[in-house]
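Aim 2 progress update. The chain analyzed this quarter is reproduced below.
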Amino acid sequence: MSELRFMTKRRETDREYVSQREFAELKRAALETFEQERRERETKIYEPSTPELTANAARRSTVIMLGSRVAVATMGWIGSVLIARAISPEQFGQFSLIFGLLGLLSVITDLGVGRVVLAKLVESNPWEISLVTTAFISLRVVLGLLGYILAVGYVWLLSYPAEVVEATAVAGLVVVVATPSHALSVMYQSRLKMTYVAVAEGAGQLAQLIATIAAVLWQPILIVFVIPALINEVVAAAIKIRGVRQGIAGPLPASRAQFRRWKDMLVEAIPLSIGFAFITLLSRVDVLMLGQLDSFESVGLYSIGYKFADLLQIVAITIVTPVTTLLVASWPDKLDAFRERSREAFIVLTVLGGASIAAFWPAAAEVLSLLYGERFTVAGTSTRLLVLGACFSMLTQLGLMMLVASGRHRTYPWVALGGLGVNVVLNFVLIPRLSFNGAALATVLTEILLFVAMWTVIFRTLPVRKLFPAVPFIATSLVGALAAITGTLGVERFGIPWPIVAIVAPVVVIGIFVVLPISGGKPLLSLIKPGGETA
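Predicted structure tokens:
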């Protein structure tokens, strides 16, 4: 009987042992499956395929961004026209002053860090990229908040009217949202995946235009007109975030921010940050000085010219942004590719600048009257000068990106400081005498000086020959100037309708260089057609 109980208990023990062993095996298998899924998930998130950093990919990004930004500029123009017609010249001057101030705050909110971080995003391993992007985004969040405080503090301390202070408090939120949003754009840029950025910017601008139309119809006052700009940035940021979470912009940001990386970013970007600060001050100080030395109405008339000049800046950014990625990837091992990409971008920007002058110079007053009303035709001269200055600014911006890509940007602050000093002196002298025309003349003279200084620095610091395409630059400048003079005479003396001149003149300029060789025996078309060469 005792033996039977012993055998029964032995069987129960064996069954319990088998159950425990099976449970352990199932547990081990489950853990292995979980670990495998975790590794696959991390591989998918942190180890994307190698980005296609080729000239062809850069051209695709350029075409996509150019189309998007033309649409954005068009919608922005429509919005500015509606606002200019809906409020008084003084209120439009206040509106322009607020957003001029916010643009000036990019001195604080950008600091040039994005251009330095781009090199890390192109070259680093996936884990490093995740940590860098988190630190970069968090840094820009802090800079955006600082910019907001400075904007509101500025208008409050200088005792601007109460409606200006209130509108700045609302409009300043644009800086809080846009500053970290730009960090996401840099992520897309590092992979030449600019389609998402194009979609985000287009959707944001469309939302802004719809909100502006609603404001014009129901509540056309200053504080309401600044809200659509905030809506723009919120919509754009939301779309960018969605793409980042899907891994389109590269490795996802890490879950923790290593704040110690801020120091490395800022120290490395100090020369560029200082130079960029001076240039930003240079581009916006004229608006603030005009507001102090003249009137809000002059600010409004002068700021209209920047609507057209900014269009050329949009074109420049669209072309230079993907080119910068290629320049970073090609330096210093592929100097031939560095030279070719730089020259191609320079020539394309020069031809576009010449065509823009040929189109706009003869028709400036008529375009202003058509879009903004008869009272804005007095700003025809200042607008022409600002557009001319923007043509030189495009080439200066390309030169700066070449210095950044090669790590030779430490002389840039001195160039920018010299330009800022000249601009302030010229504004003090010319604004009391010529009002907003004086401010425009100061701007164009300063832009020419900066262009010469920037390319002098490139000649002396970059160990690459034949970076500056002198013959194409001179030929394009002469053809553009001749077309502008001929078109102006045709409109003013011979009564040729200005829309015909505005269309024919730039087509002639571009057509000449599409047919004739402009660089190394190649016409313009060969420089912009798709190709598969790598950076």
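Confidence is low (pLDDT under 50) at residues 40-50, 530-535. The two ends are 89 Å apart (CA to CA). These observations will guide the mutagenesis experiments scheduled for the next reporting period.
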